[in-house]
């Protein structure tokens, strides 16, 4: 379990002893206040709707890219606020084909969208405008977003840290679907049932994509790259969507075998897939890790 000690790493917490999970900063900066700013990222002619949570202070601030799940009903914006209070700029966006963003949804498009956004926020003009540090980028994702964060962190060299919260391992899912046509049909039906704000192919097409991309989509196959990153893996003991036994524990074991240098993992008790009863515990787990592993001066 991740420890609960708050460490005020240089450039992260606004003041020593400040708890970003439960309290606002006391030292308000009127010259460089926190702000909420709309943004748009372009990928293959499609516009991705985004929000930048600018942290107060001149910066540059380490940056979190926050990735939602499928379809993204739980956006985890409480985590965005906590991370900002901890001194991180946060970029949140909707993938192609979701929640009003242009284009068509697919799992491969999600990975392409993450790469596009990471590249965009690292550009000097964007980083300066939002007081972001392009050399300290962390990916934080929930469910589908956890999968995207892990695979993207393995594939994008400039990403330093990655956190997966109830993250999916679609490679493990593909193994189950291949063994059971009934399971494949049920998974496709489940995707269709949750696809209200998603525009794109139906569940059957998405299942076919999972099967075709099973090697790339298997988070366990990326441990050689992830072992060099700071990694946080958080699971929920009552999660029936991405149960820890299938999606969390095997990846933890694989990273340990690979000799991961900076791995933290936690299974929060009495928590469902959305961590409905453990939002404070989740926020504290994340901000503690950000402060110690992903701030300026962290290893």
**CA-to-CA gap between the ends?**
20 Å
Percent strand equals 15-25%
CATH topology: Rossmann fold
Helix content: 25-40%
Based on secondary structure, the structural category is alpha/beta
Determine the number of helices (DSSP H or I, runs of at least 4 residues).
Answer: 11
Major β-sheet strand ordering: 1-2-4-3-5-6-7-8
- What is the count of structural domains? 1
> Topology as H/E string?
EEEHEHHEHEHHHHEHHEH
Q: What's the architecture in CATH terms?
A: 3-Layer(aba) Sandwich
Q: Overall 3D geometry?
A: globular
Let me know the number of strands.
8
Radius of gyration, in angstroms, nearest whole number: 18 Å
Query: What is the arithmetic mean of pLDDT?
Result: 93
| Poorly predicted spans | 1-14
CATH superfamily name? Answer: Alpha/Beta hydrolase fold, catalytic domain
Biggest sheet overview: 8 strands, mixed
CATH level 1 name: Alpha Beta
């Amino acid at each position: 379990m991740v420890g609960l000690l708050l460490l005020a790493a240089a450039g992260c917490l606004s003041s020593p002893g400040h708890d970003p999970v439960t309290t606002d900063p006391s030292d308000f900066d009127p010259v460089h206040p926190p702000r909420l700013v709309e943004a748009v990222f372009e990928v293959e002619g499609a516009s991705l709707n985004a929000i930048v949570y600018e942290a107060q202070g001149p910066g540059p601030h380490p940056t979190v890219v926050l990735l939602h799940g499928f379809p993204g009903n739980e956006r985890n914006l409480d985590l965005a606020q906590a991370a900002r209070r901890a001194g991180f700029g946060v970029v949140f966006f909707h993938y192609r084909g979701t929640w009003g963003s242009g284009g068509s949804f697919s799992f491969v498009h999600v990975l392409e969208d993450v790469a596009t956004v990471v590249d965009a926020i690292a550009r000097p003009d964007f980083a300066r405008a939002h007081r972001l540090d392009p050399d300290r980028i962390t990916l934080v994702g929930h469910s589908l977003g956890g999968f995207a964060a892990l695979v993207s962190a393995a594939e994008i060299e400039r990403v330093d840290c990655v956190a997966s919260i109830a993250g999916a391992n679609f490679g493990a899912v593909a193994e189950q679907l291949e063994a059971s046509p009934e399971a494949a049909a049920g998974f496709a039906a489940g995707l269709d049932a949750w696809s209200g704000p998603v525009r794109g192919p139906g569940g059957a097409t998405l299942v076919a994509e999972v099967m075709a991309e099973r090697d790339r989509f298997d988070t366990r196959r990326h441990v050689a790259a992830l072992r060099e990153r700071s990694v946080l893996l958080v699971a929920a003991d009552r999660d029936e969507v991405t149960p820890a036994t299938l999606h969390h524990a095997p990846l933890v074991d694989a990273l340990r075998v690979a000799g991961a240098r900076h791995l933290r993992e936690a299974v929060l008790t009495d928590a469902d897939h959305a961590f409905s009863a453990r939002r404070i515990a989740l926020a504290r787990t994340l901000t503690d890790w950000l402060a110690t592993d992903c701030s300026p001066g962290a290893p």
